[in-house]
Amino acid sequence: MVTARKAVESAEGFLRSIYSDRALDGLRIEEIEKAEDNTQWLVTLSFFMKEDVKNDSVPPPLASMFGSGLNRVYKRLCVAPDGEVESMRIGPLQ
Description:
The chain is α+β, with helices and mostly antiparallel strands. The chain has one domain: Nuclear Transport Factor 2, Chain: A (Roll), CATH 3.10.450. It has helices at about 5-20, 60-65, and strands spanning about 25-35, 40-50, 70-80, 85-90. Strands 1-2-3-4 form a four-stranded antiparallel β-sheet. β3 (about 70-80) and β4 (about 85-90) form a beta hairpin. It is elongated.
Protein backbone atom coordinates (compact mmCIF):
# COMPACT_ATOMS: atom_id res chain seq x y z
CA MET A 1 0.00 0.00 0.00
CA VAL A 2 1.23 3.48 -0.83
CA THR A 3 1.94 5.98 1.92
CA ALA A 4 -0.41 8.85 2.71
CA ARG A 5 2.03 11.26 1.05
CA LYS A 6 2.06 9.20 -2.17
CA ALA A 7 -1.74 8.98 -2.12
CA VAL A 8 -1.98 12.78 -1.93
CA GLU A 9 0.57 13.18 -4.74
CA SER A 10 -1.45 10.77 -6.90
CA ALA A 11 -4.70 12.61 -6.12
CA GLU A 12 -3.15 16.01 -6.94
CA GLY A 13 -1.68 14.69 -10.19
CA PHE A 14 -5.01 13.21 -11.19
CA LEU A 15 -6.86 16.48 -10.51
CA ARG A 16 -4.30 18.48 -12.49
CA SER A 17 -4.66 16.11 -15.47
CA ILE A 18 -8.47 16.15 -15.36
CA TYR A 19 -8.60 19.95 -15.06
CA SER A 20 -5.65 20.62 -17.36
CA ASP A 21 -7.56 23.43 -19.07
CA ARG A 22 -8.07 25.33 -15.78
CA ALA A 23 -5.87 26.76 -13.09
CA LEU A 24 -6.37 25.04 -9.73
CA ASP A 25 -5.89 28.11 -7.59
CA GLY A 26 -5.53 27.60 -3.88
CA LEU A 27 -5.21 23.80 -4.12
CA ARG A 28 -5.04 22.34 -0.62
CA ILE A 29 -5.43 19.07 1.24
CA GLU A 30 -8.57 19.02 3.37
CA GLU A 31 -8.71 15.41 4.61
CA ILE A 32 -6.90 12.12 4.20
CA GLU A 33 -7.98 8.84 5.73
CA LYS A 34 -7.91 5.13 5.11
CA ALA A 35 -11.10 3.64 3.72
CA GLU A 36 -13.13 1.28 5.92
CA ASP A 37 -11.59 -1.77 4.21
CA ASN A 38 -8.12 -0.38 5.09
CA THR A 39 -6.82 -0.91 1.55
CA GLN A 40 -7.48 2.49 -0.03
CA TRP A 41 -6.87 6.11 0.81
CA LEU A 42 -9.67 8.68 0.71
CA VAL A 43 -8.19 12.07 -0.09
CA THR A 44 -10.26 15.27 -0.06
CA LEU A 45 -8.72 18.20 -1.94
CA SER A 46 -10.15 21.65 -2.54
CA PHE A 47 -9.37 24.48 -4.92
CA PHE A 48 -10.91 27.67 -6.27
CA MET A 49 -12.78 27.46 -9.54
CA LYS A 50 -14.08 30.46 -11.42
CA GLU A 51 -17.82 30.52 -12.03
CA ASP A 52 -18.71 29.30 -15.52
CA VAL A 53 -21.95 31.26 -15.54
CA LYS A 54 -21.57 34.91 -16.39
CA ASN A 55 -24.26 37.33 -15.33
CA ASP A 56 -24.26 40.14 -17.90
CA SER A 57 -27.20 41.87 -16.24
CA VAL A 58 -25.02 43.16 -13.39
CA PRO A 59 -22.55 45.94 -14.28
CA PRO A 60 -18.89 45.04 -13.52
CA PRO A 61 -18.47 47.63 -10.72
CA LEU A 62 -21.45 46.13 -8.87
CA ALA A 63 -20.41 42.55 -9.63
CA SER A 64 -17.05 43.15 -7.96
CA MET A 65 -18.84 44.08 -4.72
CA PHE A 66 -20.53 40.67 -4.63
CA GLY A 67 -17.37 38.59 -4.58
CA SER A 68 -14.57 37.42 -6.79
CA GLY A 69 -16.58 34.92 -8.83
CA LEU A 70 -14.52 32.09 -7.32
CA ASN A 71 -16.01 29.16 -5.46
CA ARG A 72 -14.08 26.63 -3.41
CA VAL A 73 -14.67 23.20 -4.91
CA TYR A 74 -14.15 19.99 -2.91
CA LYS A 75 -13.22 16.68 -4.52
CA ARG A 76 -12.92 13.35 -2.72
CA LEU A 77 -10.61 10.91 -4.46
CA CYS A 78 -10.20 7.21 -3.78
CA VAL A 79 -6.60 6.05 -4.22
CA ALA A 80 -5.93 2.31 -4.68
CA PRO A 81 -3.09 0.44 -2.94
CA ASP A 82 -0.96 0.77 -6.11
CA GLY A 83 -1.35 4.59 -6.09
CA GLU A 84 -3.86 4.82 -8.95
CA VAL A 85 -6.89 7.05 -8.49
CA GLU A 86 -9.99 4.88 -8.83
CA SER A 87 -12.72 7.45 -8.38
CA MET A 88 -13.48 11.13 -7.82
CA ARG A 89 -16.61 12.51 -6.21
CA ILE A 90 -17.92 15.85 -5.15
CA GLY A 91 -16.69 15.98 -1.61
CA PRO A 92 -18.06 18.61 0.73
CA LEU A 93 -16.59 18.52 4.21
CA GLN A 94 -18.74 16.95 6.86
